[in-house]
């Protein structure tokens, strides 16, 4: 059984595709959430994390989907641009990600059954880590089904999934504002593959080569989007090799497809609503000590406990741990047993790092194997508690 989830939507192809994929895996999208510029006359913010081009069009997504749309203006800036993000760090005050935290907290307050958040991150660790940090603080599960998928595969999947999106921003060699802005993704696909081959760019736009605005897709059950008047082209750089420009969308209309679907409501999360107080995450070592002192659980038991540290290359090492936890009050094969085992395993990894003069900041990749996907939520919560974002 899936989660009730809120979909983070920017207007782009990736965010709606992520929500559609979550639906295909049994999750229920019950709301949308979006961040927009504080100044409505500004089309594009200098944001490290959020797409804002086309934000006026996103303002009618509740009418297109029949779902409530929660929106909040961005009052923060890209103040904390280090890769890691900790919501309890004093340095993140005033960062735009705190607007995201306030937005999602408002969703949870109004829709307490929401347990997960979908996002369209494909390749950006910067974006993914921030969404995960906010989710961990609010007790939500981050669902990022596009993460690390081959970009060519994602481009083909999006085009084959009835996602009608147009290019609303271009900023790459081989893309031309006068030719490509407003062009459908399906029509531009050949060009995107050509510039990827010629210049090493990303055909799905993960390097900032272009952004899109979704006009129609299966998530839009009630209607499709239409420009009431042609958007203006705003040129931001006349670089002779890689000009940058975007569409300024001024007026849109909804063409109703299904009159039996009522429009959703628009919820303004006012900027006066501060982000919630930080929920301090339990450290892995605290969770491990709890396991050690609990009468309900025992490390290892009759199962094999493994821990290893080995060189994987001139500059790389791998550390692995498999730490089964069992006990009289832990049902065998239960989600709780899996979560306790994950916490204990993460502690052993942390110990190995410390023994070798390292910590979690030195870790480039974590692979966590889950035997039963019905335990994913519990194991994921254990992971988020244990591994700093």
How would you concisely characterize the structure shown here?
The chain has eleven helices and 16 strands. The chain is α/β, with parallel strands linked by helices and 389 residues long. Helix 4 crosses helix 5, helix 9 (284-293) crosses helix 10 (335-355) and helix 10 (335-355) packs parallel to helix 11 (376-386).
Considering the chains and any ligands shown, give keywords for the structure.
single chain; 389 residues; alpha/beta; 6-stranded parallel sheet; 4-stranded antiparallel sheet; 11 helices
Structural class: alpha/beta
CA radius of gyration: 23 Å
Instruction: Name the average pLDDT.
Output: 87
Largest sheet: 6 strands, parallel
Unreliable residue stretches: 280-289, 291-304
Strand content: 15-25%
Terminal-residue CA separation: 27 Å
Number of helices: 11
Q: How do the SSEs run, as a string of H and E?
A: EHEHHEHEHEHEHHEEEEEEHEEEEHH
Which strand order do you get reading across the main beta sheet? 5-4-1-2-3-12
The percentage helix is: 25-40%
Shape by Cα distribution: globular
- Report the count of strand segments: 16
